[in-house]
Design a protein that fits this description.
Elements: H1 3-31, H2 35-61, H3 72-85, H4 92-114, H5 120-153
């Protein structure tokens, strides 16, 4: 396999990751009771979609075909969110905990990609997206912690 093929595979993995995030955040937002947090999750979904859109031309420029769907694991996660969302006990806190776990997995996937040999221009895009992902994770983590404190007070 050529270095170009390796890069296409790595970037396609990230596209899949972004699509999982986009679909996952939208599914979570549907069940979120707090309007402000719902809007934030929808913004995160839009950010993930934009990240995937930024990566697609890279794959094409390397002679590959960009992935256009999320992973099987991501689909399972979205299905689980949908099922749990119908349960009365599935709280905003639980949604944020699930979102944080999904962000943990996304960070791992980006770290894996950054551990590979990537052309400088590709690395720059992936690093910038990784920094955004870290900011998003910190925001979800802070919201989760705030929701945990609020839940403990009730």
């Amino acid at each position: 396999m050529s270095n170009s093929d390796d890069t296409v595979d790595a970037v396609n993995e990230l596209i899949e990751c972004c699509l999982d995030g986009e679909f996952g955040f939208r599914a979570s937002a549907e069940h979120m009771r707090n309007d402000g947090t719902r809007r934030l999750l929808l913004q995160r979904a839009d950010d993930c979609g934009s990240a995937a859109a930024e990566l697609r031309p890279i794959v094409v420029s390397l002679g590959g075909t960009p992935d256009d769907g999320g992973s099987a694991g991501g689909a399972m996660q979205r299905g689980w969110v949908a099922v749990k969302g119908t349960l009365s006990g599935y709280s905003d806190l639980a949604i944020l905990e699930d979102s944080e776990r999904a962000e943990d997995k996304a960070i791992q996937r980006y770290q894996t990609a950054l551990g590979k040999e990537l052309p400088a221009a590709v690395r720059a895009v992936v690093e910038a997206q990784y920094l955004g992902l870290q900011r998003n994770h910190a925001q979800i983590e802070a919201l989760r912690e705030s929701e945990r404190v609020a839940a403990a007070q009730h």
